[in-house]
Amino acid sequence: MRASPGAGEVPPKSKVPYLYSKGDISANTTLETGDYVIRAEVYGDQLGDESVQGAIKLNGTELKKFETRATASGAATTIEAKQFIKAGQQRLSVAFFNPAKDPKDDKKKASTLRPQHLGRWAVQPAAADLAGRSPQNHDA
């Protein structure tokens, strides 16, 4: 998994990717033709009144937008998108739209920016296509 350059990182110890600026956390995978369910667990620091907002994307196209007020991996919001996908290389991503700065801090310090996290995600065939296939999990 990768974070958008200059917008976040994937720390080597925790391996939980996060963004501190507007951007994507993405991975490439190869899939067979079929109907798929893409799931992601998302959470972020809540600063101000606005929820963390973003979308699941496939090859740059938004599949499903989301909002979450979850603040920890144990209470992450699970988002889900269903999509017919043609065989081949695919780029899956979770985009975060609204990095925020703590309204009480007038200086732009990394410690006061809203980190946005992607916990786990999975891509698996929809129920009708499950026979004989295993899900492709991407743990952070």
Task: Provide the fold topology.
Layout: E1 2-3, E2 8-9, E3 18-19, E4 23-31, E5 34-44, E6 52-58, E7 61-68, E8 77-85, E9 88-96, E10 116-125, E11 136-139
Antiparallel strand pairs: 1-4, 2-3, 3-10, 4-9, 5-8, 5-10, 6-7, 6-9, 10-11
Describe the protein in words:
The chain has 140 residues and is mainly beta. The chain has one domain: Galactose-binding domain-like (Jelly Rolls, Sandwich), CATH 2.60.120. The protein is 0% helix and 52% strand. The chain is built from no helices and 11 strands. It has strands at 2-3, 8-9, 18-19, 23-31, 34-44, 52-58, 61-68, 77-85, 88-96, 116-125, 136-139. Strands 2, 3, 5, 8, 10 and 11 form a 6-stranded antiparallel sheet that branches. A 5-stranded antiparallel sheet has the order 1-4-9-6-7, with no helix packed on it. The chain starts with a strand and ends with a strand. 26% of the residues are buried. Residues 128-135 have low confidence and may be disordered.
Question: What structural class do helix, strand and pairing data support?
Answer: mainly beta
Please count the helical segments: 0
Following the backbone from N to C, one meets helices and strands in this order, namely EEEEEEEEEEE
Portion in helices:
under 10%
Please compute the radius of gyration using only Cα atoms: 16 Å
Tally of strands: 11
CATH class: Mainly Beta
Poorly predicted segments = 128-135
Overall form: globular
N/C terminus separation: 8 Å
CATH topology name, in short, is: Jelly Rolls
CATH architectural arrangement:
Sandwich
Major sheet details: 6 strands, antiparallel
